[in-house]
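Regression test case RT-17, inverse folding.

Input:
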């Protein structure tokens, strides 16, 4: 082992979630149940996975210093005033028996008013909303919330994670988004076209010395101006879009086709879900943001320019439909048209009936704990090693993202090994 400069995870870690809906309330409730010994953190890499270091297999927390679940304090912002208990009950993801044992703790988690613009989330009407003269003013209010929460809960560190709705697609405006000073000027002039509400949270978090994670496909931190701010504040940023159901399957299946040299002529994906996320994504302007995220996966993994005989002419279609009877029970259906020897066609059909928030909850835990680790290790800017957890991994203009789940897993493990004082290792486990 080598010596490392990773600071230990001492004191309380405040996890502040943007959005206290189904995903966040499931995440918070589950974490509280786990630390009472009433549940298992299934799906969480930081809590359950083991990796090889030398000749031993160890959990992540045995290799690097991670915040303990008992040291976590939860906070949130939301467009509705419901506390975490009310939100969890309203979401109807978890059974009463998995909520009531931590009811008192959940009731104490009351959200701050949210930064909200109905033009960015067409299907929602928030009632618990901040008022401000411009985007800069709203950002300063979020900064105040972070400071107050940190002080009130005696936290030594804060991590902010976006678990709210997908915003409408914001195309990159180089005049505004490529320069930090220009971005700040746009916030102060209340440029509502180029400055999304999510950018207020990201700017506030980084300015308050808190890592920021984008869990939706929003443009937000995926712009050079935010990279400059992360560089200036020496804070990690990660994103974007939690990798839950259908995209998880794609990052497994597409590498299998490429490895086996099987061709792909078409990939049709559709989703039905009835939660708040489904309602928002049923709106074309919001779906556009999600579509860009989802469509990038296949092309990036298969790389038609490198293997044109197999992947140069793939028809890839993605649909998301709001279907209230399903609530948080999402169905992701894929029809994949492949071809093999002599070009003979075959089909694969995948029907993934899953619970959206159940799949997302452990991702929030892992991303927040590992972003906190990154900050203590002095890692700042885009955290590409966290791509494993995300649909559309962040990358700068000089690098391409890695989508292959197994390559992402190797990158993740090696980053943890190195922060733990071990050599990177790509040998087969």
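Golden output:
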């Amino acid at each position: 082992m080598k010596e490392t400069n990773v600071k230990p995870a001492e004191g309380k870690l405040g996890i502040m979630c943007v959005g206290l809906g189904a995903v966040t309330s499931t995440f918070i409730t589950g974490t509280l149940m786990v630390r009472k010994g009433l549940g298992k953190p299934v799906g969480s890499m930081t809590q359950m996975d083991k990796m090889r270091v030398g000749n031993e297999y160890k959990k992540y927390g045995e290799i690097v210093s991670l915040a303990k679940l008992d040291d976590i304090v939860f906070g949130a912002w939301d467009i509705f005033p419901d506390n975490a208990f009310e939100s969890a009950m309203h979401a109807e993801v978890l059974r009463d028996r998995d909520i009531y044992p931590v009811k008192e703790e959940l009731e104490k988690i009351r959200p701050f008013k949210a930064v909200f613009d109905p033009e960015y989330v067409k299907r929602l009407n928030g009632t618990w909303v901040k008022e401000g003269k411009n985007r800069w003013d709203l950002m300063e209010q979020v900064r105040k919330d972070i400071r107050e929460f940190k002080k009130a809960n005696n936290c030594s560190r804060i991590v902010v994670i976006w678990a709210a709705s997908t915003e409408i697609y914001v195309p990159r405006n180089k005049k505004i988004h490529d320069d930090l000073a220009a971005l700040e000027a746009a916030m102060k002039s209340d440029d509502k076209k180029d400055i999304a509400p999510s950018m207020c949270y990201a700017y506030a978090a980084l300015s308050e010395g808190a890592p920021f994670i984008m869990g939706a496909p929003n443009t937000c931190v995926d712009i050079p101006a935010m990279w400059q701010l992360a560089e200036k504040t020496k804070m990690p940023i990660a994103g974007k879009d939690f990798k839950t159901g259908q995209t998880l399957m794609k990052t497994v299946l597409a590498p299998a086709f490429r490895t086996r040299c099987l061709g792909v002529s078409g990939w049709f994906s559709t989703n039905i879900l009835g939660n708040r996320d489904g309602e928002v994504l049923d709106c074309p302007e919001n779906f556009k943001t999600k579509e860009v995220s989802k469509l990038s996966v296949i092309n990036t993994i298969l790389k038609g320019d490198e293997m044109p005989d197999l992947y140069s002419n793939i028809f890839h279609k993605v649909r998301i439909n709001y279907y209230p009877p399903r609530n948080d029970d999402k169905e992701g259906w894929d029809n994949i048209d492949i071809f093999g020897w002599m070009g003979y066609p075959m089909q694969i059909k995948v029907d993934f009936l899953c619970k959206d928030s159940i799949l997302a909850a452990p991702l929030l835990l892992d991303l927040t704990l590992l972003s906190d680790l990154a900050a203590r290790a002095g890692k700042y800017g885009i955290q590409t090693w966290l791509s494993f957890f995300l649909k559309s991994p962040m990358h700068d203009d000089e690098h391409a993202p890695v989508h292959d789940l197994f390559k992402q897993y190797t990158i993740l493990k090696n980053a943890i090994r190195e922060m733990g004082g071990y050599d990177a290792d790509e040998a087969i486990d």
